[in-house]
């Protein structure tokens, strides 16, 4: 896969923080890579989120202080807190690049996320999982799973994102007919709940 300039920072970030290629990239960065792989237009990405095994998480937490200053500007450890919904179901390590860096993006790693609407654990995905796509040796959650996750969240910004992404994904063959129907079903359910409960942050969670 030839890496377009718009997603070069995604791969730079993965290569910097996961040279052994053990993580699973999710979220907006993964969506961007899928789109770039088929030549679709991709906006610049804000960060890179990954699911990771416990051993990786423990190791990166133990060694973060020894990282070169060219890789790490700041980092913090976040613990799950509050009542459901929790976006992260396990602790999260956030690594921020040095101020002014254009080569690296903020990087977040955790063992599980997705809250009560789409709980997703690293352990759920084997190397041969049909829900995982590999580019340049790095693993990414499939477009269908990512869009279902987005639809179930049901935030206003997620619904707007789907309005744009669904036509693109279909046009470029990133979803089968069955996958499209599955995403559309989740989208419709969230839209109904969003209209019925406009004050909710996540459409499906009464919080």
Polypeptide structure, described:
The protein has helices spanning 8-17, 27-37, 54-63, 143-153, 156-171, 177-196, and strands at 24-26, 48-51, 74-78, 92-96, 107-110, 112-113, 120-121, 132-135, 138-141. The chain is of the alpha+beta class. The chain has two domains: 5-141, Beta Polymerase, domain 2 (2-Layer Sandwich); 143-197, no CATH class. The strands form two sheets. A seven-stranded mixed beta sheet has the order 3-4-5-2-1-9-8. A two-stranded antiparallel ribbon has the order 6-7. Helix 4 (143-153) packs antiparallel against helix 5 (156-171). It is globular and about 50 Å long. The model has no long low-confidence stretch (mean pLDDT 91).
What is the rounded Rg?
Answer: 17 Å
Main CATH class of the largest domain: Alpha Beta
N-to-C span:
42 Å
Strand order of the largest sheet: 3-4-5-2-1-9-8
CATH A-level architecture of the largest domain: 2-Layer Sandwich
Shape: globular
Order of helices and strands: HEHEHEEEEEEEHHH
How many domains in all?
2
Strand fraction: 15-25%
- What is the residue-mean pLDDT, rounded to a whole number? 91
- Please estimate the helix content: 25-40%
Largest sheet: 7 strands, mixed
**CATH-defined topology of the largest domain:** Beta Polymerase, domain 2
Count, helices: 6
Which residues sit in consecutive blocks of at least 5 with pLDDT less than 50?
none
Structural class: alpha+beta
Number-wise, the strands total: 9
Brief overview:
The chain has 207 residues and is of the alpha+beta class.
List keywords for this structure.
two-stranded antiparallel ribbon, alpha+beta, 16% strand, single chain, seven-stranded mixed sheet, Beta Polymerase, domain 2
